[in-house]
Design goal:
134 residues; VC0802-like; seven-stranded mixed sheet; 16% helix; alpha+beta
Length: 134
C-alpha cells in the first residue's frame, strides 16, 4: 500500500524578515536584558543558558554571539496538527549543506539562515516547491 506523502511535504510560503540578526547566549541566571528590542526577537531560558535572537545592532559588544543571520518566516498561522512543515524546509536545506537555526511560536515557524547562504537557501526552497517573498 502506498502512502500519500503530499501531506508530509507541504508547499509553504515564506518571507524574509528585514535585518541582520544574531543568536546570543547569556547565563541562565541573567535577567532579561534591556537591550533586547526590534520588530522580531526571541528569548528562551533553558538549562544553563538564556538564548536571545534579535537584530545584531542591539547586541552589546562583548556578548557571546553568533552574528550574520537572516530570518525566513513561514506564513501562518500553522495548525498544531500539520505534519512535515519543518522537514519540508530543513530536508532540502540539509541536502544542500545549509545550516539552520529554528524558532517556533504559537502561530508559525522561523528559519535562521546565515546571511552568506540566504540566496542559495531561497533557490533550494523554491526548487522544493516553496515560495519566498523578500
Amino acid at each position: 500500500m502506498s502512502q500519500d506523502n503530499s501531506r508530509l511535504s507541504p508547499r509553504l510560503s515564506l518571507r524574509v524578515i528585514p535585518g541582520c540578526f544574531a543568536v546570543s547566549r547569556l547565563d541562565s541566571n541573567d535577567e532579561f536584558p534591556a537591550w533586547v528590542s526590534g520588530e522580531f526577537y526571541s528569548v528562551s531560558r533553558a538549562g544553563n543558558e538564556l538564548s536571545i535572537v534579535c537584530e545584531e545592532r542591539f547586541v552589546p559588544q562583548g556578548t557571546r554571539s553568533e552574528p550574520n543571520w537572516s530570518v525566513l518566516e513561514v506564513s501562518g498561522p500553522l495548525e498544531f496538527t500539520e505534519i512535515g512543515v519543518l522537514s519540508s524546509l530543513a530536508g532540502p536545506l540539509a541536502d544542500a549543506g545549509i545550516s539552520i537555526f529554528v524558532l517556533s511560536t504559537f502561530d508559525t515557524d522561523y528559519l535562521l539562515i546565515g546571511k552568506n547562504h540566504l540566496n542559495e537557501a531561497k533557490n533550494v526552497l523554491a526548487a522544493a516547491g516553496h515560495s519566498i517573498k523578500d
